[in-house]
Design goal:
The structure holds two protein chains of two kinds. By secondary structure, chain A is an alpha/beta fold. In chain A, about 45% of the residues lie in helices and about 10% in strands. In chain B, about 70% of the residues lie in helices and about 0% in strands. In chain B, α10 packs across α16, α15 packs across α16 and α18 runs antiparallel to α19. Classes of the chains: A alpha/beta, B mainly alpha.
Chain lengths: ~350, ~500
């Protein structure tokens, strides 16, 4: 019986130690170190791995955003215009508390020269603190003790270590294509319209006060501006993705358009005061947003559109300046207000 | 603190066991008990420090009342002290657990407008209150019953059983704490304890939690279930609650064995039962025992005629339902079992002639249907669930449920199937879910429970490998990678 007891205890502790060491060595979430040898930071679990990528990879350019930005390829941004090495830190459904964790890490790197930040509408309209971060604390903090949740984690051992190894072996996977979803969806007008119709509001609500979201904007700016001011050598690119015309249909029906456009104007006015900020606005790319074959739903577009945004930012097109941002946004408001949405459903 | 956590398994438990035996070896048995009490209090306040004053007050109050009772032979005074004690214990339970429910029910049906501030429910209050009531009643009946304060405090606060029971009686535990033959390390007990704890942990981590994911999804999407999904969800909850609760009790028993303490058994394969009467001899045995001894017998038991017997039985199950939770659904669940119990007694001599399979099926079905009320948010939702179940609408297994509830262990299989074949993910995953439900049902109905396994315990290689496997797999399940659902962005 004594032998039985000590056999169980010794083997349990030894195997746990072995598993922990194996996890530290393979490190599929890039938490402790860069991928070893020929391994790359291939796709594992976005929400769990990206903070590690931000912490341990070498880069001078960081692309931060939501699912709108997932189809970018980091390699596009490595031609010298933005920098020479880029990491893509894009999280589906991310809110600002997620982005602050990533920004803190990115901006703690001395080599960071460029940050490209996707300024989605919901970041300006959501109440601050409404959506706490979903990035696990044990991966984003400096507490070594709680790393036990990573190194003795069933999912990491049974799923993500094998996935990490397999994805590094299979030809279709690379760090560059990690977390893209271009091949998983159908992009067609018919599909988008038929899905959107099922959720389209039947009533049009009264237009909400234009200043509805300004306090949310203040909260956003109070978090974002310190990053800009404390990193004068880093260029911040803020870009607004081209949601489809159906997004504006929904916005008009909810009575939100004036308030959303005002929110953008309010934020842009403040951001444009800084020399290290550049703003790119793609929401008024009318050729794109009215061609629903570019979309999988009312806001998510195909990878071609991501490439279009990259090219535009590289070449300085669709950039807003202090003397142009206001008129551009007014034009967008008028366009959204006057568009014949019903024609889309005929 | 909870049993299924790194801090408990890798720090608290080894520290407590080692500390207990090291101190006992020095001959300072009282200090060893004090050490155990302090560790139990640390275990308790790890959840929330505000719980501690309530526990301490409860212990002081009950112990003080018994001290006063033992100081007098006056029956009136002793009875008054007993009644006060029972009322104080029940009063605290009502305050923390039921006041909000009573207020909202009165507001709904009697059109009153009571408002009650919400209070945090102290961990284990339903259990330690009943344990202390049993001590009060037993002390009233037997004035020679005397324990010192340390023994009594340890009995109430002993960490393996404080959170979820079982409702152990004082005379079962306290003599064991003081038995000098139990003060040295007993490797047979520790070996059995390891097996017991590993099995319990596996029941909780590998079965209950995965079944819970299915049940949670189902009870959050009742109107869209159809018969197929309602059946899966109903079974999932039936199995979840069994593996979760009995798993906890197995762990508690295993931990007690580390200290050479034999904890009373609380489950005996209840889903093997052939009648409701048998079910309650196998399910939450210590609760049934408490109600029988301290409610059913004082009400007259079966000594006052058949009608009174059935009425007493019904009252016991009504109270049992209420004990489980502050909601009408729990009361209705209790009433259903009360009716089931009465019918079981009434028709027992006829139904016993039926084939075993029929009796098992009828009992299992009854228990499953009653659990629907126990789990549902309201009676209305329970009724909608049952309508879905009996709608005969055999829609496909829900893809959303399958994605959410697929055990981690199956994710890699699915990933490989997706990469190397054209078999649909849905087909693979739904097959895994159904196989998992079937295995869990088989395990609960056919496999030996831990007490049966321990009675024929042989410390061989097979047992080592199985124990190690379950223990390791369960510990690794303490931490998982979450799944997030996103809307729009």
């Amino acid at each position: 019986m004594k032998k039985f007891t000590w056999t169980i205890i010794k083997f349990t502790l030894s195997l746990l130690l072995l598993i922990a060491v194996a996890t530290i060595i393979v490190d599929p979430f890039i938490h402790f170190h860069k991928p070893l040898g020929k391994w790359a930071a291939v796709e594992t679990s976005e929400r769990y791995a990206l903070i590690g990528v931000a912490k341990n990879m070498d880069y001078d350019t960081a692309l931060i955003g939501s699912s709108m930005s997932e189809n970018f390829l980091a390699s596009w941004f490595e031609d010298g215009t933005f920098g020479n090495s880029c990491v893509k830190l894009c999280l589906q459904g991310a809110h600002f508390d997620d982005f602050t964790i990533l920004l803190n890490e990115v901006l703690s790197h001395d080599n960071t020269k460029t940050v490209l930040f996707c300024l989605d509408a919901y970041l300006l309209t959501n109440t601050p603190g409404e959506y706490p971060t979903t990035i696990p604390e044990y991966l984003s903090d400096d507490n070594l003790f709680n790393d036990i949740y990573y190194i003795l984690n069933k999912d990491v051992i049974f799923e993500y270590i094998p996935k990490f190894i397999l994805n590094n072996r299979w030809e279709n996977y690379s760090a560059d294509t990690a977390y893209t979803w271009q091949d998983m969806f159908v992009f067609s007008k018919e599909s988008v319209i038929s899905t959107y119709k099922t959720q389209r509001l039947t009533t049009t609500f009264e237009e909400k006060p234009y200043d509805l979201y300004l306090s949310n904007c203040d909260a956003f700016l109070s978090s974002m501006i310190p990053y800009i001011e404390n990193n004068p050598d880093v260029t911040f690119y803020f870009y607004a993705s081209p949601y489809s015309i159906l997004f504006w249909d929904d916005s008009m029906k909810r009575g939100d358009t004036a308030a959303e456009i005002t929110a953008y104007a309010y934020v842009y006015e403040r951001l444009l005061k800084y020399k290290n900020v550049r703003i790119f606005y793609f929401q008024n790319a009318t050729d794109i947003i009215t061609n629903l074959d570019n979309y999988r739903d009312y806001s998510h577009f195909s990878q071609d559109i991501n490439y279009f945004m990259f090219e535009s930012m590289r070449d300085g097109k669709y950039e807003l300046k202090k003397d142009t941002y206001y008129d551009t946004l007014i034009d967008m408001y008028n366009y959204a207000k006057s568009y014949d949405y019903e024609a889309l459903f005929q | 603190m909870i049993f299924n956590s790194f801090i408990f398994v890798l720090l608290f438990l080894p520290l407590t066991v080692a500390g207990y035996y090291i101190i006992n070896k020095t001959g300072h048995f009282d200090i060893a008990k004090l050490f155990l009490l302090c560790m139990s209090l640390w275990f308790y306040i790890y959840v929330h420090i505000s719980f501690l004053p309530i526990l301490i007050l409860s212990i002081l109050l009950n112990y003080g009342l018994v001290l006063l009772m033992n100081r007098t032979v006056n029956k009136m005074i002793r009875k008054s002290l007993l009644v006060s004690g029972i009322l104080l214990n029940l009063g605290s339970l009502i305050y923390f657990k039921y006041l909000g429910f009573f207020a909202s029910t009165a507001n709904q049906y009697l059109k009153t407008s009571f408002t009650v501030a919400s209070v945090l429910l102290p961990l284990g209050i339903s259990f330690f209150t009943f344990q202390q009531i049993s001590y009060l009643v037993d002390s009233y009946r037997d004035s020679t019953l005397k324990y010192n304060f340390l023994d009594y405090s340890l009995f109430v606060a002993f960490f393996p059983k404080i959170a979820q029971g079982p409702i152990a009686f004082h005379h079962e535990l306290i003599p064991q704490f003081n038995n000098e033959n139990r003060k040295q390390i007993n490797y047979e007990n520790i070996s059995k304890g390891l097996v017991c704890f590993s099995f319990g942990l596996a029941k909780k981590m590998l079965l209950a939690d995965n079944l819970g994911a299915i049940a949670d999804w189902g009870y959050g999407n009742i109107p869209a279930l159809g018969t197929t999904n309602a059946l899966i969800v109903m079974l999932a909850y039936t199995l979840q609650i069994y593996f979760d609760f009995s798993g906890y009790c197995d762990m508690a028993s295993g931990i007690c064995l580390f200290f050479n303490i034999d904890l009373v058994n609380n489950f005996d394969s209840p889903y093997k039962s052939l009648s409701i009467s048998e079910f309650w001899k196998r399910w939450h045995i210590t609760l049934t025992r408490f109600f029988r001894q301290y409610v059913y017998f004082p009400l007259g038991g079966n000594r006052k005629g058949k009608l009174r017997t059935y009425a007493n039985m019904f009252i016991v199950f009504l109270l049992s339902g209420l004990w489980h939770g502050a909601a009408l659904t729990f009361i209705l669940w209790g009433m259903l079992h009360g009716i089931g119990m009465c019918l079981s007694k009434l028709c027992g001599k006829y139904t016993s002639k039926l084939p075993r399979l029929i009796r098992w099926l009828a009992t299992f079905l009854f228990v499953n249907l009653a659990w629907v009320f126990f789990r549902s948010e309201s009676i209305t939702y329970a009724n909608i669930f049952l309508k879905q179940l009996f709608s005969w609408n055999w829609i496909p297994v829900s893809a959303e449920m399958v994605i959410l509830a697929l055990p981690t262990e199956a994710n890699l299989i699915q990933y490989l199937v997706q990469h190397y074949s054209s078999i649909s993910i849905y087909y693979t995953a739904s097959s895994i879910i159904i196989a998992f439900i079937l295995f869990s049902t088989f395990a609960s109905v056919y496999m030996k429970n831990i007490q049966q396994r321990l009675s024929s315990f042989i410390p061989n290689v097979k047992t080592i490998v199985l124990t190690l496997f379950l223990l390791l797999w369960s510990i690794l399940s303490f931490s998982e990678v979450g799944t997030f659902l996103y809307i729009n962005f």
